Amino acid sequence: MNLTRRHFFSRATTGIGMAALASQLRAERFGGLEAMPSFAPKAKRVIYLFQSGGPSQMELFDYKPRLNDFAGTELPESIRNGQRLTGMSSTQASFPVVASKFSFKQYGESGAWVSELLPHTAKMVNDIAIVKSVFTEAINHDPAVTFLQTGSQIAGRPSIGSWLVYGLGAETRDLPGFVVMISPGAGGGGQPLYDRLWGSGFLPTKYQGVKFRSVGDPVLYLSNPQGLDSTMRRKYLDALGELNQQKLDDYGDPEIATRISQYEMAFRMQSSVPELTDLSKESEKTFEMYGPDAKKPGTFAANCLLARRLAERGVRFIQLFHRDWDHHGGLVAGLPKRCKETDQPAAALVQDLKNRGMLDDTLVVWGGEFGRTVYCQGRLTATEYGRDHHPRCFTMWMAGGGVKPGIVHGATDDYGYNITENPVHVHDIQATILHCMGIDHTKLTFKYQGRAFKLTDVHGNVVKPLLA
Hints:
Alkaline Phosphatase, subunit A; single chain
């Protein structure tokens, strides 16, 4: 035995000692916290629709009619109040206010204002909670996306999906507990999305997200190598598993346990993934509901449909990233395209879950990393404009498990620049997601380098008015 007494106790205190390693290999649930929620959860799973690039809240949800009166005037310093600017607009000599080119109407029992760009979302406002007062500390894309995904602007922390699977375990043996899918905007641009955004950080790597692809095998190395059939692969994995088990017995390294379990998962996925991605049994009515792109692999619509199928099969955390919402210029032309790609599928996903009796225990979250400025970035013309990054306020919506439907939470000033009611920090959003899943965010911890880390770091509060 090469595991020293010091190493044994250091691992035991972090909850991944030998006893825990044995539990990780159980046939069913295997969470780092013994797969036990802190209290009765309302949601069993999360589907997070992340709109990467920063959707403009003033064009979508945060209606500001007085901007028509302010249009073209200089943004008052009393409103901007010395806010830090990005490098893209810091050299501008003028900050002219620009009103939205798109019309709004009120919908639902709450009278929520929704843009003409989101006609399908508008029809489901009675099923969602719109939060107009989210704010972040980051002003540039990478730290802002990293903050939403990991609770820190600095890379290296576990992602929210990893925290949830670590805390609650997996509900299925045949698919990963955490799945990620990425769809590009039709323009093909957008900010880069790095694998670390769904990584496990300092948690054991068995909790990291698995990215599904739209071309070739949905998961890399899923097919048998040329000349190796399933029977031979099974024998190969059995032999490899015995060797790895010997090393696990000798060293107690949790990454060896991960390797064993992931090899076995990959073998089972040879059957489960083709069945998952075979949409031949979905009705034409379902495809019509998700929209014309639903049959095109890799689109947001197709990924939304796959998200519902993953949820049906017990995947704990499903994250869809859709790119190209970064409209520093060309907003009037570009934003409608992103909305057309995502509005109908997102609304269909909520309705589909509701029709199947799954919305009550599935939490759906929609939002980006920050909002957009009320002032124009670059040249303002009669037909076109752009908006810079704005961390002080932006809009998200949530639906399903544990969330009160048909409400609007928070408000901003007449310029849509500062929050005036019920501010909601990024860590508050994360705490609320964990709460809906039955987890007290202050107790979901992992000791690393002498410190007990949390997704919400040293603060964050559950947004109780959002809870059903």
